[in-house]
Design goal:
By secondary structure, the chain is α+β, with helices and mostly antiparallel strands. Helix content is 46%, strand content 27%. The protein has four helices and five strands; from the N terminus they run αβββαββαα. Strands 3-2-1-4-5 form a five-stranded antiparallel beta sheet. A hairpin with a 2-residue loop joins β2 and β3.
Length: 168
């Protein structure tokens, strides 16, 4: 194998691994988030709910941080997961609405995994964070595939023009 081919294969493999890893995590999180719709619920109490902001060089992201307590059977649990796959985003209004709803409540339904009650969420569904992860991973993989095709075409020897050139 030529050195250039080996280097490109090793280099581009990292991009494929990253893309498929993010896509796999997206499917795992979506499956978990949809499964939570059928989990049993326990009444819980919000211990803390805040809106965290993180500023970058050109944007700010917002995320609701929550901590809640709940009881399953005779055991007490504490958790901090709002929803499977939930992450911050730039849409401050939607995060503030979630925060307002949490802060205005006396109690909240906690959905817990019946086989592992410490695994719990407050909400579920195919939400924006999951949609973004899917869109990002698919875009990443399409770009990587496109780059691979461009490299493959550029690295091939083409004699079409030479073969079709007629001289006298």
């Amino acid at each position: 194998m030529r050195t250039g081919m080996w280097f490109f294969t090793a280099f581009i493999s990292l991009f494929y691994i990253a893309g498929f890893s993010i896509l796999g995590y997206s499917f795992f999180s979506l499956r978990r988030s949809l499964a939570a719709a059928t989990w049993p619920t326990a009444q819980g109490k919000i211990v803390r709910a805040d809106l965290k902001s993180s500023s970058g060089s050109d944007s700010t992201t917002y995320q609701v941080e929550v901590e809640y307590e709940y009881r399953v059977g005779s055991r007490d649990y504490t958790n901090d997961v709002l929803a499977a796959g939930y992450a911050g985003s730039g849409g401050r209004d939607s995060h503030e609405q979630i925060l307002d709803k949490l802060q205005s409540s006396n109690a909240v339904d906690v959905r817990y995994n019946p086989s592992q009650p410490e695994d719990a969420v407050l909400s579920f569904g195919f939400h924006r964070s999951l949609q973004f992860m899917f869109a990002f991973s698919i875009t990443w993989l399409l770009f990587t595939i496109g780059f691979t095709i461009i490299w493959w075409v550029a690295s091939r020897e083409s004699t079409v023009l030479l073969d079709n050139l007629t001289v006298h």
